[in-house]
Amino acid sequence: MNNEQVLQPDNVELIKNSRVGTSTKSSIAVDDPATGHVIGHVPDLTPRQILRAIESAETAFYKWRDVPLRERCEKLFRWYQLMHEKEEELAGILTSEQGKPLSESRGEIRYAASYIQWYAQPSLQDQGSVLPYSSIDESMIVITEPVGVCAAITPWNFPAAMITRKVAPALAAGCTMLVKPALETPLTAIAIAELAIQAGIPEGVLSIVTGDGEAIGKIFSESAVVRKLSFTGSTRVGRLLMASSASTIKRLSLELGGNAPFIVCETADVERAVQGAIQSKFRNAGQTCVCANAFYIHTKVYDEFTEKFIACVNQLMLGNGKNESVDIGPLINENALEKVEQIVADAVKKGAVIACGGERWVNSERWYYPTVLLNADSSMRCVNEEIFGPVAPIVRYNDETALLEELRQQQTGLAAYFYSQNLGQVNRLSRALEVGMIGVNSGVISDAAVPFGGVKSSGIGREGGRHGIEEYLETKYIKLSY
Ligand SMILES: NC(=O)c1ccc[n+]([C@@H]2O[C@H](COP(=O)([O-])OP(=O)(O)OC[C@H]3O[C@@H](n4cnc5c(N)ncnc54)[C@H](O)[C@@H]3O)[C@@H](O)[C@H]2O)c1
Ligand SMILES: N[C@@H](CC=O)C(=O)O
Can you give the residue ranges of the Aldehyde dehydrogenase domain (predicted)? Predict the structure, then answer.
């Protein structure tokens, strides 16, 4: 595999290698968000081809589940090594189709590979048990088994990591998996799957299927062969998939949208808070599910924080992610830009003040200036909705209890961040915030070893860590009379 090979147009060969139906009349163009140029095509697979891929995954499942756990893990470990060896090529593909700066793409490839490394540990899996409640001539045995054929639907913002975070535990558990990547970023998925093949992962165990999201989602969720569906994306689509999966009572993991509050308490180390705020808000131009959304700054540290924060925001460099010194790449598409513009317009109409940014970059329509909105409040979309762009609304507060009550009203619950140097306050806020993940004095929380996921409308289930593999295992009880 090399960069050229993956990026050449109409490259169905890699899809073929990835063991998906090969002959398809139509194809989907993939473009580079920094230039608008088409950089490749992937097949728009028909329902029949998707059903065939599901059949292959089922055939493969009954073999793969019987491959000894250590052997499955060895193959995963080889896959992890290949991803490391090909980090530069994979990062190039990722930046080409997604737009994030190369340094972030390299970081994502390492992060993606770290999930494969993590789940290549045989000792992570439940060891089962023999229960101590039986009589002398009986045994009560509890074992775990793979769930079966699984399907994944993934978003464009993390085209590598959102796939390996699902595939690695599934394959380690003995499941097979079909992945439908986002239409905007299928090339990274295909390149990663190609490495899985090179690592010796057999035919049908991992398949990439490309095509219309709605059609493929319906096939996955209504298929009785697919026993589990793992989705990462918007809450809107998650809700649809949950409803359509009801017909087959499918196991579901839903990693959905967030709206992470970033609170700077009166006791915070403001310098550290500013650094954390920049990292948390502007990674991937604000297009990250755990990005800080709105900033809540205590009135005692408000002036110091906003002054230092705006100074840092003004230093961020915009440009093509392939240029090593760039901090902010383009937004993924025109829809994303329009959404950001509408959110800023709504805030300004309701009284927010633009401290910096607030428009598209003068050099290109595909970028939005990193923006700080002062005087933001909960009547504004920028505070209530996931912005998914480089816009930082700042809300001033002086009553912690009232703030926590306001945050409790939000329906999302993925991540939250706060900065405080008071132990009692750290304990109090950590307990009070209704979210799945919290960064205390830290703007970066992701790691393959931790349970990643949300509460309320931000989702169901956890990915990563020891918890992540449980999503792909069923528990079976066996009563044995001698
Ligand atoms: N919680 C997490 O771990 C996490 C991680 C990354 C992104 N996200 C969320 O994802 C969203 C951004 O990603 P997006 O714009 O790609 O989301 P999206 O929901 O529009 O798309 C996600 C995937 O679903 C597919 N899809 C679209 N419509 C579908 C349908 N009707 N049925 C089945 N599949 C369909 C898309 O093709 C894509 O593959 C944000 O809300 C972000 O917070 C969450
Ligand atoms: N950035 C998240 C994924 C969601 O966008 C992560 O760190 O895993």
Answer: 25-478
Which residues are paired to 374 by β-bridges? 353
User: In this structure, how many other beta carbons lie within 10 angstroms of the beta carbon of residue 348?
Assistant: 16
Beta strands in 291-414 (DSSP E): 292-298, 353-356, 371-374, 391-397
Pocket test for ligand 1, best of 28, 42, 153, 163 (most atoms within 8 A of CB): 153
Contact of 53 with 193, CB cutoff 8 Å: no
Architecture of the structural domain at 260-411+415-447 = 3-Layer(aba) Sandwich (3.40)
Q: How far is the CA of 465 from the centre of ligand 2 (A)?
A: 15
Nearest Cα residue to atom 34 of ligand 1: 213
The residues lining ligand 1, judged by C-beta closer than 6 Å to any ligand atom, are: 153-158, 162, 180, 182-183, 213-214, 217, 232-234, 237, 240-241, 255-258, 289, 386, 388, 414, 454, 459
Pick the CATH number of 3-257+457-481 from 3.40.605.10, 2.80.10.50, 3.90.1710.10, 3.40.50.300: 3.40.605.10
**Considering the entire predicted model, what is its pTM?**
0.95
Residues 282, 112, 75: CA angle, nearest 5 degrees = 180
| Distance (Å) from CA 232 to ligand 2 centroid | 10
Give the pLDDT confidence of 317-347 residue by residue, as tens digits.
999 999 999 999 999 999 999 999 999 999 9
Q: What does the pLDDT look like over 376-417, one tens digit per residue? A: 999 999 999 999 999 999 999 999 999 999 999 999 999 999
Concerning whether 255 is annotated as a catalytic residue, the answer is: yes
Catalytic residue among 108, 194, 255, 471: 255
Half-sphere exposure in the Cβ direction for 288 (13 Å, CA): 23
Whole-angstrom CA distances from 100 to 61, 121, 252 are 36, 31, 29
Residue 259 to residues 48, 108, 145, 380: CA-CA distances in angstroms?
Answer: 38, 21, 36, 13
Query: What's the pLDDT band for 365 if we cut at 50, 70, 90?
Result: confident
**ipTM value for the complex:** 0.96
3-state SS assignment for residue 120:
coil
